[in-house]
Amino acid sequence: MKGLKNMTINERNEEQTIDELLYQLFGNKVEIPVGTTLFRQGDSCQQYVFIKSGGVKVFTRSENGRELVLYRIKPNESCTLTTSCLLGDAFYPAEAVTESDVVAYVLSKPAFLSELNRSSQFRAAIFNSYAQRLKDVISLISEVNFSRIDARLAKFLLTQCENNQLNITHQQLATELGSAREVVSRHLKEFEKRGWVRLSRGIIVLDDKEALRALGEFHLI
Q: Which long-range contacts (CB under 8 A, 24 or more apart) does 81-85 make?
């Protein structure tokens, strides 16, 4: 929601730092340690949170304990589910956990609704962010339902690797892809057998990115 920065500067037209402007708008700056659960499924939504630094993972969990990452909240972004719950007076349908130490600005529900009604630019920034996130989630749902898991795994390895390596467990991969650990492990072992990757505890090294890319591009069932 990067438009929020521009909104506060342009609309209020004051010579202040971004921190001061955000503090004026949100009123409460908080520091949240890594590993903190921000909300759980079924929780009531009473605050709007704007992330200044750090990252948050938003995910859903099935009855059998399997997780699927819906999206991540990065600096200068807010949580789409929070926006939805505030506007619809609904309970959270998912969970959120900080993946690093987070600095955030918090706005109470009444203040959020008041600012939304008062400021057209604030309102536009909120709904632009909402629309983009909705597009991303729909794309994720399409991939989960209509794409082969081996192709999705190959694409994930390619997009997330650094220096041809990922530091990630099979369970973490399964969570990212919305699959079971056993399924992910089976495909990784097949990749290793073909010479595409090398596996060790918590580490995956990519040896044949072209082969992975070819598989990733052939992703529809």
A: 82/39, 82/45, 82/47, 82/48, 82/49, 83/48, 83/126, 83/129, 83/130, 84/130, 85/45
Average pLDDT score over residue span 22-31: 72
- Beta partners for 166? 204
pTM, to two decimals: 0.66
Calculate the CA 196 to chain-centre distance.
28
101, 32 in Cβ contact below 8 A? yes
Rounded CA gap, 100 and 91, in Å? 25
Q: Are 104 and 59 in contact (CB under 8 A)?
A: no
- Confidence band (pLDDT; 50, 70, 90) for 2? very low
Distance CA 84, CA 102 (A): 22
Sequence length of the chain is 221
For residue 93, the one-letter residue type is P
Does 23 or 4 have the greater pLDDT score? 23
Question: 59 or 13: whose pLDDT is higher?
Answer: 59
Decide yes or no: CATH 3.40.190.10 for domain 3-145. no
Give the largest Cα separation in the chain, rounded.
Answer: 62
Does residue 220 register a pLDDT over 70? no
Burial class (CB in 10 A: 0-12, 13-18, 19+), 10: exposed
pLDDT for the residue numbered 27: 63
Question: In CATH terms, is domain 148-217 a member of 3.40.50.2300?
Answer: no
